[in-house]
Amino acid sequence: MLYYLFQYLDKMDFPGAGVFQYISFRAAFALITSLLITLVFGKRIINFIRKKQIGETIRELGLEGQVQKTGTPTMGGLIILAGIIIPTLLFAKVFNIYIILMLISTIWLGGLGFLDDYIKVFRKNKEGLQGKFKIIGQVGIGLIVGSVLYFHPDVVIKERITPGKTDIISMSQGTKKEVSPPKYAEVPTKTLKTTIPFLKNNELDYGKFISWACEDCAKYGWLIFIPIVIFWVTFTSNGANITDGIDGLAAGSSAIIGVTLGILAYVSGNKIFADYLNIMYLPNTGELVVFAAAFIGACVGFLWYNSYPAQVFMGDTGSLAIGGIIGVFAIAIRKELLIPILCGVFLIENLSVILQVVYFKYQKKKRGLEYAQAHRLFKMAPLHHHYQKVGMHESKIVMRFFIIGITLAVLTIVTLKLR
After folding, report:
1. 3-state helix, strand, coil in the chain (%, to 5)
2. Which residues in 165-312 belong to E strands, given as ranges?
3. What is the pLDDT of residue 127?
4. In this structure, is residue 210 part of a structural domain?
């Protein structure tokens, strides 16, 4: 909102108002504002939650320090939501379709998680919202995101006609560099292309998966694209939810991912960087940097209270939202095929649960229940609980997962240059 105010003031020649035109400036202020909201008002929200006796009921899993966490305030995801939504509304171009889409996703998934936490805390139902209703909610937002990205006229790419280049011109008194910016098509293209990691000059077009059926079938590419969007949103949302099992792990991992996504959005929305890195130029996606900054600030600010020993848990209100945000963001900037690398922590946490269940059922069928219970693949799933079971302190587990997350984030960025 402030963007439009200062845009008006700039037209009135108000001194300094033009600085709001710069994405970097607004992103910096979004980050600072998000941190202030989560740090200053976060404590008040925690105290309010504690007064209302909204505490976490911990299941007995035989983990060290588990009993002490009983009664810790939950639903702290409200702090994260406030830290994302308020700075975005203040500093982003709120009429940008990508910003609108991110805000809708944040509120939708935050509301879905809030409903789950409400049932657990106030209805005293430990199971919370039934799994099928969670899936329906995730599929619903995936359907909205996929439809908007496919049908909205502002969601386009600009095809590069000629690459930029630097010529060295010899002169009598030395040399001079002459930089020619890349040339892009005047008319943007509506396409279902996405970035393939590692491969140069080779994007994946989802429309081609159906174009073989008939001459005009490419226009039905949404039949392929929308289910793919639903898959990624559901995967990342549930991935963050499963990862949120020990103090600080989900918030810190999401902050690392958020930094990477912000960088990817910046280079994708900038003609010069997009040309240099040989990636698709996506008009208007640069504005997502402001949202990413607010997201990073919210996760880091929440980590202030959620790091070991946690003063508050984010609950499903936060975990479903931050995971879904990551998925929608990656799809919006056409980097969803990088999710398995970038969100590797979420991936291994998800896989550990799946492998544990599959292996248990296999052993039960082959050798019986008693043997299956005594010979599980992991001592406990998700994976972070396995390491707790072998005696590793949760703060050490979190830090090692952070190191893995940072390594994967760097690798994700490096894939662009490798192309």
Report:
1. 65, 5, 25
2. 165-171, 174-180, 183-184, 193-195, 203-205
3. 79
4. no
54 closest CA partner among 102, 124, 157, 149:
124
Q: Say yes or no to pLDDT of 68 above 80.
A: no
Residue matched to tokens 């039934």: 130
| Residues recorded for the chain | 419
Range of the domain at 387: 2-6+23-155+219-418
Phi, psi of 23 (to 5 degrees): -60, -40
160: β partners: 184
Evaluate whether residue 396 is within a structural domain.
yes
Q: Please identify which residue in the block is written with the tokens 């939501």.
A: 81
Q: Cβ distance 252 to 398 under 8 Å?
A: yes
Query: Does residue 284 register a pLDDT over 60?
Result: yes
Residues paired with 205 in a beta bridge:
193
399: alpha, beta or left? (left if phi > 0; alpha if psi -120 to 50) = alpha
Measured in degrees and rounded to the nearest 5, phi and psi for residue 269 equal -95, 5
Give the span between the Cα atoms of 378 and 383, in whole angstroms.
8
Q: For residue 299, tell me if it sits in a domain.
A: yes
Q: How many domains are contained in the chain?
A: 1
pLDDT digits over 308-362, tens only? 888 899 989 999 999 999 999 999 999 999 999 999 999 999 999 999 999 999 9
Q: Is pLDDT of 108 > 70?
A: yes
- What is the secondary structure of 33-53 as a DSSP string? HHHHIIIIIHHHHHHHHHHTT
Distances from the Cα of 316 to the Cα of 31, 111, 141, 158, 244, angstroms: 23, 9, 16, 38, 9
Indicate whether 358 belongs to any domain: yes
Distance from chain centroid for Cα 210: 29
